[in-house]
Structure formats: structure tokens, C-alpha cells
Amino acid sequence: MTSSLVLSESLLNELLPETTIPQEGLQKICDRLPELNRGKKIVGRRNSQTTSTLQSLAMIADSPYRQMKQCLSQIDAKRNALIEAHFTAKKNKAKIKVWIEENTELSLVEAEEASVANEEMKSSCENAMKEIGMFQDMYEQIRTAHNIPVDWDEEDYERQEIANALRMGFRQAIQNLMSTNRIAVSTVEYWEQFGVHPMVGEKLTREYMASVETELKENKLPSVQSMHNFLEKMVETFKEEHKHSLTRIGVDAIVNHQYAYKKKGANNNDNN
Known about the structure:
The protein is mainly alpha-helical. Helix content is 71%, strand content 0%.
């Protein structure tokens, strides 16, 4: 039984008996197909490492825990795909055995098709494994760079969510003003949820953008670190304001520590 299918000139003639492509052209196509297999090993994964690292929305989140969460999500998705591929391949092997025993013209075609599918699946599985390794390395690099303990838990994650939300809100405000010169209703709602008065938030964002405009007029080119510094300043200014929202809602704390996943031996009673 053939485990892989080579797209040869004879196969193409069988598939396209009335093709208008000359034999020379068909042969040229077939001769260059091996490059496909080599290329798929290089770029066959869904995203490049550059895209996965820099352009994923979650990866540009300001919280290292959010970034680690994205890594774990990607690893989980690839792992699940590998598990599915494993059982698909096993089912195909069982079907192949049955079809070969049937030994009819149709069953042998089915067997060949399943065999080819299993072979083609190997490339996808290899790429999935590479992506798992890439995200595992990313996860460890982020964790180490931010001095996050190996046994971090849900309370560690929740502890930085307010800062992450504030950065996200003011980042959205900058985007709103750059695109429409007005704060979107969604940003107003987002700010209010975390205790930021929308008019105050807009005033501070416009003041920051005006300072950048002044630098540009002076032919200065501020880096993106300028924006990051502004976002950090907003975190320091508003990091306690969400407590007003908690009071309005009528709850004592955001995190119910009784139901949070905690590292073994942890006993945290903070009212975050």
C-alpha cells in the first residue's frame, strides 16, 4: 500500500485526460513539486513566529500573566489537535485494514486515500509540535523575565488584572481619538467599570496626545515607550478607583479567595 502520493505526470494525465496543458508544462509542474514539501516544513504552520510573538492581540496585552495565558491557550489548542490527529490516524489504519480485506475496486481506492491522508497528516503534526515548543519557550521567557514563580496561581493572576484593565482602557482611548477624534461608548463603559470618570480619562488622554504632537512638531520622534510610560502613569493614578465600583455593586472584593485556585499551602485573605 502506497503511504504517500506523488503528483506525477501520469497521475495528472489520469486526473485530467483532456487537459490543455502541454506535456512539457505538466512535467515542469511535477518536477517543481518537491519544493512544496520543503516549503511546507518552513512556513506550513498557521502563523509565523513573528506573528505569534508580536501581532497576537493577547501577546501585546500589558500583563505578563495574560501573555502567559495566551501561550497556554495556544499550547492547549495544538495539543488537542495532535490528540485528534492521533485518533484520526488510528481510525484510518483500522479502516484501511478492513478495506484491503474487502479487496474491491472501491475499497482499495478508499484504503489508498486514507493512507495518503495519514501521511499528509504527519506534516501538520510536526508543525503543531514546533508551535508547542515555541510557545513553551515563550511562556518560560515571559515568566522568568517578570520573576513570576513556577507555581503561580489564580490569585497571582487576578492580582494584576486591575492594572491590565486600566492600561487597556487608556490604550483604547488613544485608538479612539486617533481614528474618530472621540471616545467610543465602549471605552466610556470600560472606564466606568474600573472607576475612571470618563471625562477625566478623556482629558488625560488628550493631554498626553497633545504632548506627543508637540514633540512631532519639533521633529522629535518619541518611541512607543512614551505611550507605555503614559499607561503606567494611568495605572498609578487610578489603581484604587475600582473600589468605588465595588461599593456601588455591593460586594466586598473582586476575588472570592475561597473558590480561587491557590498554590499548595497558600492562605491569602487579601481583599483585592
